[in-house]
Inverse folding.
């Protein structure tokens, strides 16, 4: 059946002798009719399967039955799924009918697939189905509300020992037992924590010492649990452990001065599998000037050393340092703890100069006490002899306080007895 446009063009082509033009138009019309006659239906039997890999789900579908007999076109599919970790839609095209993707099972799993045709049957025109097949899988409704693990984090100490910890929700029953499972692409199924960390008998983390996990690989974790009141809510997490490294604090610090009034501060690298070219440092410099003013500075450096000028020997400089992996090696890392403090001049030298002075003062005190004690003994002996001569009946302990109150310098003018008075007794 001719279109109105062809009914108009055909008589004009015959009158002008444009038969070649007519043939070209006819071929174009035929191909366009053939193209438009082919339509693409969406795939069928879309399904989401969970093989027990902590959110690594298998997506499968079947080709539309209306296109099973077409052999002159390439049949492809456009898969779209919502990435629950990146919070965005991911799109890809594939000739296959299966695909594996990672999802957070605590959120909705959304997948949709369209059909794409391209080839001779469409005159090499790409045709996409107007509709798509969609599946939305809701998270399981089981689990006591608000009992999932909180503040989950992993620390990869010196790239040797991985520890993952979490905290309990306030709604978690006291009788609960929490479990940690992990999975990565080298495992067929999820595996439970090899060694739990306990706090007052409660599981609060997992220690992976002796069970190394692969670096630069997505690792997925799930913390679930049970209680006498029912199952706990599951919590899912994902990370790459090389981004969780925490170095140990530098252990040995060195501080020395040079003849050109330079203060050289350097330290050794932390132990472990850490690469030197991946490390960066932060130095905390505490300075007390000759005028007593105090300042605190933080200095970043790419090398394990620092050189400063000092102008006065009465100044005091103290340093601490910490380290971490730089952004050229990992996406992120933790700062180490601060090292111990080292100072110039060293505090021990100051103490050493003060201790001899303190010792000399002590010696002077001991000598003075010995002299006073000797004088008191001699005075007591002298007083006893004189009292015997005088025949006094008063006791010695009544005489000594009077003698001591006169500071041993004044004379006793009169000493009274029941029988006789003595005068001019000089000490």
């Amino acid at each position: 059946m001719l279109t109105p446009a062809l009914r108009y063009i055909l008589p004009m082509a015959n009158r002008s002798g444009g038969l070649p033009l007519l043939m070209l138009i006819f071929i174009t019309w035929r191909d366009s009719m053939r193209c438009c006659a082919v339509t693409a239906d969406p795939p069928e039997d879309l399904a989401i399967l969970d093989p027990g890999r902590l959110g690594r789900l298998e997506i499968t579908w079947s080709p539309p039955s209306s296109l099973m007999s077409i052999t002159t076109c390439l049949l492809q599919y456009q898969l779209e799924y919502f990435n629950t970790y990146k919070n965005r839609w991911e799109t890809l095209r594939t000739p296959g009918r299966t695909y594996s993707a990672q999802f957070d099972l605590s959120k909705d799993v959304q997948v949709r697939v369209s059909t794409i045709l391209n080839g001779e049957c469409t005159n090499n025109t790409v045709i996409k189905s107007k509709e798509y097949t969609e599946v939305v899988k809701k998270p399981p409704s089981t689990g006591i509300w608000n009992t999932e693990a909180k503040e989950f984090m992993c620390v990869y100490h010196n790239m040797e020992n991985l520890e993952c910890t979490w905290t309990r929700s306030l709604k978690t029953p006291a009788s609960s037992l929490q479990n940690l499972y992990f999975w990565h692409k080298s495992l067929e199924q999820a595996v439970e924590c090899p060694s739990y960390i306990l706090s007052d008998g409660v599981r609060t983390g997992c220690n992976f010492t002796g069970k190394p996990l692969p670096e630069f690989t997505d690792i997925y974790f799930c913390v679930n649990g049970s209680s006498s009141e029912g199952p706990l809510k599951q919590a899912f997490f994902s990370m790459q452990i090389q981004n969780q490294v925490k170095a140990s604090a530098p252990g040995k610090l060195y501080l020395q001065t040079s003849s050109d009034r330079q203060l050289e501060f350097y330290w050794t690298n932390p132990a472990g599998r850490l690469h030197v070219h991946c490390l960066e440092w932060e130095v905390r410099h505490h300075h007390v000037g000759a005028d007593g003013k105090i300042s605190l500075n933080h200095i970043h450096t790419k090398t394990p050393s620092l050189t400063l000028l000092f102008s006065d020997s009465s100044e005091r400089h103290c340093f601490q340092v910490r380290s971490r992996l730089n952004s050229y090696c990992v996406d992120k890392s933790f700062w180490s703890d601060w090292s111990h403090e080292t100072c110039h001049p060293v505090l021990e030298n100051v103490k050493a100069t003060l201790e001899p002075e303190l010792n000399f003062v002590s010696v002077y005190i001991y000598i003075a006490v010995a002299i006073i004690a000797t004088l008191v003994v001699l005075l007591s002996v002298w007083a006893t002899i004189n009292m015997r001569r005088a025949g006094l009946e008063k006791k010695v302990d009544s005489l000594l306080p009077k003698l001591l109150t006169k500071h041993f310098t004044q004379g006793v003018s009169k000493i009274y007895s029941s029988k006789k008075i003595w005068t001019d007794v000089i000490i």
In short: DSSP finds four helices and 27 strands in the chain. Confidence is low (pLDDT under 50) at residues 349-358, 407-427.
